[in-house]
UniProtKB/TrEMBL annotation:
Keyword Membrane: yes
Keyword Kinase: no
Protein name: Transporter
Transmembrane segments: 40-60, 72-93, 108-126, 138-159, 165-182, 189-208
Domain of life per record: Bacteria
Keywords on record: Membrane, Transmembrane, Transmembrane helix
Length: 213
């Protein structure tokens, strides 16, 4: 009878069971690197620096604000994006390496999707943009780059069940389209300030609210 009394004491109410589950989810997310700030900070800095260089070269009226060569702008942009892409792949791999089965496979495939997307985009842009004027060539490269990123953000949100990531992808697509309509200089400005700065702010807000990726 004594053992029966002990068993009764270990039975938890539904509310207590739910609380335990939520704590375990939070601890698991923390172990898997679910902090959103590093992710959004990496992409925010990439956008802010990479597209900011092009904004300074193109200007809003077609006249450069700073004398930066086209080659230097391209190197700055693609090095920034490559670093952010590599960091994203690393986070996905880190998450996948600490889980098993389908989750691990999803993380690995999602990380590889970034490389495949950008390699394919580069091939298309090189072929389609070789005869375009400089400003229009920039717009082609920049809009395709943002398109790849916004689609992968939306896919990542869907695959991992992360609504903030999906919402950011949708917002990024809207900003990209608006920039294409307004022109090269405006596109560079929106990509740098609105997207780059916005990513950094979003990452900070999500961390303060305890939201994980």
């Amino acid at each position: 009878m004594g053992s029966g009394d002990g068993d009764d004491e270990t039975v938890m109410s539904p509310a207590e069971s739910l609380a335990v589950i939520e704590r375990q989810k939070a601890e698991t997310s923390k172990r898997l690197g679910g902090d959103p700030l590093p992710f959004f900070l990496a992409w925010g800095l990439a956008w802010l620096v990479g597209f900011g260089a092009f904004f300074l070269r193109l200007g809003l009226d077609g006249r450069a604000y700073v004398n930066i060569s086209r080659g230097a702008c391209l190197v700055t942009l693609f090095v920034s994006l490559a670093l952010a892409m590599a960091f994203t792949a690393l986070l996905a791999w880190r998450q996948g390496s600490q889980v098993r089965g389908a989750s691990q496979e999803r993380g690995t495939m999602y990380g590889l999707s970034w490389s495949v997307g950008f390699v394919t985009m580069t091939g298309i842009a090189v072929r389609a943009g070789k005869d375009l004027p400089e400003a229009e060539s920039y717009l082609l490269w920049a809009s395709l780059s943002m398109l790849v990123v916004c689609l992968l953000f939306m896919a990542g949100g869907a695959v991992f069940g992360t609504r903030p990531m999906f919402a950011v992808g949708v917002a990024l697509a809207a900003v990209n389209l608006l920039g294409v309509v307004l022109g090269p200089g405006w596109h560079a400005l929106l990509a740098s300030v609105v997207v780059g700065g916005g990513f950094i702010v979003i990452g900070g807000v999500l961390r303060l609210r305890g939201v994980t990726l």
